[in-house]
Design brief:
Order of helices and strands: HHHEEEEEEE
Number of domains: 2
Helix content: 25-40%
Number of helices: 3
Number of strands: 7
Distance between the termini: 35 Å
Shape: elongated
Strand content: 15-25%
């Protein structure tokens, strides 16, 4: 990760250094009327407007590519730091408003067999059916099931006001 950032910075500095014009130097002519610069003659490689436009477009493309690389590096670092954990605490999540498309006449938190899916490691995982039990006094969820990885137990919380729940899956050793 650090190597990528260093390469991007070195690349940006090289672009700036190569495309910057030389300064200083004694100059030519008298009374400040001559061209200042180094002892070598500067030859402009672009003599047409099409060439100038191509150079300008290539500079814009370089900046966009560098910006995309920086954004990608930042997103990758954030994913590494969070370790796949959600950005908010479970208690905060279940108390957020989520009352869209809700049928208030039915209680969604019924004990029984449930199906679920989750997104991890850049792909969706469909779980086999799992059993959930809801404790309406402590607002706790418990249960378990089996999927392609092994057997697991479920612990979590739910909220009757927002109709949200958060579950934590822990796999059993040896399955």
């Amino acid at each position: 990760m650090h190597i990528i950032i260093h390469i991007i910075l070195i690349f940006a500095l090289l672009i700036i250094a190569v495309q910057s014009q030389g300064g200083g130097g004694g100059g030519e002519g008298g009374g400040g009327g001559g061209r200042s610069g180094s002892s070598q003659n500067y030859i402009n490689p672009c003599l047409t407007i099409e060439c100038e436009i191509a150079v300008f477009v290539s500079k814009i493309v370089d900046v966009l590519l560098a910006a995309a690389a920086i954004i990608w590096a930042i997103r990758t670092r954030i994913r590494q730091c969070t370790g796949g954990r959600p950005p908010v605490d479970n208690t905060v999540f279940i108390n957020q408003n989520s009352l869209k498309n809700v049928n208030f006449q039915n209680n969604p938190f019924m004990d029984g067999i449930w199906s679920s899916r989750y997104y991890q490691y850049n792909k969706w995982h469909t779980s086999h059916q799992l059993s959930l039990l809801f404790n309406r006094y402590s607002y706790q969820v418990s249960g378990g099931g089996t999927d392609e990885i092994g057997s697991y137990i479920i612990d979590g919380i739910f909220c009757m006001r927002t109709f949200r729940m958060c579950l934590a899956k822990v796999y059993l050793v040896g399955t």
